[in-house]
From TrEMBL, chain A:
The keyword Nucleus applies. It is found in: Nucleus. One of its GO terms (cellular component) is DNA replication factor C complex. The lineage of its organism: Eukaryota, Metazoa, Chordata, Craniata, Vertebrata. PANTHER family: REPLICATION FACTOR C / DNA POLYMERASE III GAMMA-TAU SUBUNIT, REPLICATION FACTOR C SUBUNIT 3. One of its GO terms (biological process) is DNA strand elongation involved in DNA replication. This is Replication factor C subunit 3. Subunit of the RFC complex, an heteropentameric complex consisting of a large subunit RFC1 and four small subunits RFC2, RFC3, RFC4 and RFC5; the RFC complex interacts with PCNA. Forms an heterotetrameric complex with RFC2, RFC4 and RFC5; this complex has ATPase activity but is not stimulated by PCNA. The heterotetramer of subunits RFC2, RFC3, RFC4 and RFC5 interacts with RAD17. Interacts with CNTD1; this interaction facilitates crossover formation.
UniProtKB/TrEMBL annotation, chain B:
Residues 1-16, 51-61 have a biased composition (Polar residues). Residues 126-280 form the AAA+ ATPase domain. Keywords: ATP-binding, Cell cycle, DNA damage, Nucleotide-binding, Nucleus. The keyword Mitochondrion does not apply. This is AAA+ ATPase domain-containing protein. GO terms for cellular component: nucleus; Rad17 RFC-like complex. It holds the Pfam family Rad17. One of its GO terms (biological process) is mitotic DNA replication checkpoint signaling. SUPFAM superfamilies: P-loop containing nucleoside triphosphate hydrolases. Residues 600-609 have a biased composition (Basic and acidic residues). The lineage of its organism: Eukaryota, Metazoa, Chordata, Craniata, Vertebrata. Belongs to the rad17/RAD24 family. Its main location: nucleus.
Amino acid sequence: MSLWVDKYRPTSLGKLDYHKEQGNQLKNLVQCGDFPHLLVYGPSGAGKKTRIMCLLRELYGPGVEKLRIEHQSITAPSKKKIEINTIASNYHLEVNASDAGNSDRVVIQELIKTVAQSQQIQSSTQREFKVVLLTEVDRLTKDAQHALRRTMEKYMSTCRLILCCNSTSKVIGPIRSRCLAIRVPLPSMEEVCGVLTSVCRKEGLLLPGELAKQIGEKSGRNLRKALLMCEACRVQQYPFSADQDIPETDWEVYLKETANAIVSQQSPQRLLEVRARLYELLTHCIPPEIIIKGLVPPSPDQGLVSELLGNCDGHLKTEVAQMAAHYEHRLQLGNKAIYHLEAFVAKFMAVYKKFMEDGLDGMMF
Amino acid sequence: MSKLSTGRKASSNKLSSWVEPSFGDLFSGSGLNSFDLKKGVSLGETKSKAQKTSTDPSSQRPSKRRPFPPTPEPLVSSGSEQSQDEPWVDRHSPCSQVELAVHKKKIEEVENWLKLHLNVKSEIKRGAILLLTGPSGCGKTATVQVLAQELGCRVQEWSNPTTVSEFRKEDVRETFDPDSRFNGFHGVSQTAAFQEFLLRANKYSHLQMMGEGETSGRKVVLVEDLPNQFYRQPASLHDILRRFVRTGRCPLVFVVSDCLSGSGSSRLLFPRDLQEELGVCNISFNPVAPTSMIKVLSRIVTQEAARSGSRVTAPDRAALDLLCTGSSGDIRSAINSLQFSCLTGCSPETTPWPVKKGKAAASAARGVSKARSKSKASKGSESLDSTQAIGGKDASLFLFRALGKILYCKRESCTGPEGPSLPAHLSEHQRDTLLVDPELVVEKSHMSGELFNLYLHQNYLDFFSDLEDVARASEYLSDSDFLTAEWSSRSTMLEYGSSVATRGLIHSNSARARADNQASVGFRPLHKPHWLLVNKKYRENCQAAQCLFTSYCLTPLSLQTELLPYLAQLTNPMRNQAQIAFIQDVGRLPLRKYPGRLKLEALTDRDPGTLDGDSEEEGAEPAVPAPTGPGPGETGGDQGADLPASQPQPTMAQALLEDEELVIDEYDSN
């Protein structure tokens, strides 16, 4: 038994549930023969990867689905061994180069070189190029991105790149201009609901429309998350009821509790407790950026700030948002996340406390 | 040890004296002195030169001790000079328990141990090992020597065979002498020689016991000077020790100085599990207490003054105190500097060296330096600077105290309206003068600013009461992390970072702004920082997640925040045990009020303040995905079966880049 997300993932461009027009365009792209480098971007859970896999299948046929996971080790010029996992078929190679940290440049160069140098066997019936799929391109170092630019040009004859990322803002201009950019937006609420219902129908389940809508809202239209939630609902209770609780992940609940703890009392002792909770979140693999992020209220599921913002008044909101932005920036530049997380919490506590005291003095809050 | 005072020749050759005679340079320099004087160099310069050369060996750890080079015959020799030549540390080395500057309890501990294990009749046939640790110059070796003497047993000491010639000496005690006794030892490595030494030390004692009386046959094997190889490969030492414990008959005493910088050789050479395994008794010595040091110093001063009459000017009590603080618990360096300060105290007229001529010969141009040297000499050791220049050890603080100094931030109560006070709108920033210098404290704590900041960060909240202050302090900590973030400028910014953090913390604690309202806090326990552990765990978990769940083909972010937590809630069967365990551990969070995973580890008084493992690398060090736990290799076989149809079936291949296999037989063209 596999997850619904994987089980009902569309496998060809024609079977996509939404963004059908884009699917058709991609199909045309494949058929017209001249295939450019692609830069696929869009928020998490929108279906980028699904579309890329569909595209590859369209290019190479079902043989592309025969994947193997390879554990490669590459020796950098500095004699340092880099180990990296790749997923490959006969026609493509998928790698998340940012796993290699600072050595991602070497990984990119070496891997692309290897792929590009091995020609397709039967190029008459087959595409004459292979595809290298790079995920999380926005997390590559600048160094690696520049290396990528050169490599892209050099091996154009035998190799195409598909780059996948959440945002193009961290991808350097030269790369963006060398690629055909394809934006995969989030599905609309109706589309999410439609997918959920159809998946449930295939599972032989009856999903009430209200619940589907709730799941859609709660997931922030992140389809992967919505499907996971839906499956969790199924585990929790079946038959579904329209008003049943949608299970949240533990860390989200935990984060909410943390936010409540911050709002309910502001003191150094409480900050100490909050720190322990932050540590707890970190040890459970929740990245510090996620902890602090999640500003936009429509996606109420993520982040400390959005939890905190819910408790704030208009004027305070801008101030808190500004603080959060400041410390998130620090987080990116700095070294030890806890300093910045804690500084944010402390600052929020101070501001919030002052605000509450003022509110008691003056107008009613 | 009474032989030590027999004369210069004996002392200069004696390798096994309890302390290294450190003044060879000076006295070999007496020849140099007169040579210099011919050239008209002023007295002050010579002396300072001599001081410089002689302070070095005194601050060295005893294990680094090298045999003392033979002193050249001084040009001007008189009867009285001979006694002056001998370093006071040797002349006044303790010969009874009363004279030891070590705490009574410690002596008792060592004595009990020695008594227990020297008692041949009751002894179980096992070698016993005693490990003495403590800062250098706190009397470890002296204690062993004195006790051995009092208990009537001999001390057989190991010394590293550096050059053969230096071991050719007719010492009364059996120093290990590879040349005379064991001819086969010339090409043998130090490690092998050491092993052989232990072996023979055992056997030898056995033979002695047959021939002579029981008391004289008892002996203690003392090892201070470990072959260097053991520092590189502690395991080889451990093997030798294990063998010794099985076969040994006489007690073996290791004396290891520990240093503050944390690279503790005792922890490297004698890890805790080994100590437990071999039943090693570890007695750790403290630095010599100021009171007992003063006692010893004044005893020496009175003896010297009585012996040499007017030639030695006895420093007064204040000077002794200064020496005492300057040496920071190292009695050897204290005595050395005492001897020095007494010498500088003697006026030029009474010195046996013909200084007058030199002075007369000095040109007018050198008048300034001469005057300075003269005034310095007349002041003796009274001024702090001169004393520190003579024998001052780098004062150091234990981490516990260093943190306390920052966190309690003692301030001086300002008396009288001297300085201009801040204008009204800045009055909240008004602070009394600090009693501590934060940069100095960090420096003395012997740890990197970053690590120190982590300690501060772990502990500062307990000392704050106002939230505004906390916000400000945490802002400073954030600033300081920000400063050291960029690796290219890290080394230069490190100091600024710690400055910002410490001073920021001190300043922002407005409750402790004044000297008079500082008593409020009281004692707070200090703790070790969690961050390093947390960060390590975070990285390990992330890597493990990626290794275990590669088949889902997700980015780390969505894997960690979406898939894993939901997998924990689903009844989806896992592929293998490791995945189940991991999901249970990481996917689930304890939804309780207080997280119990992190235990506060209290920081004790004497902790060296280094944490194990990878302390500083994060950020600079790229996270190399090493397969933790059961890697892809194990998960391979049954993985394909459960994968969804859409999620293309991965098969494992542990392939290097070069021999990447191409499966072409499944190829199927459209």
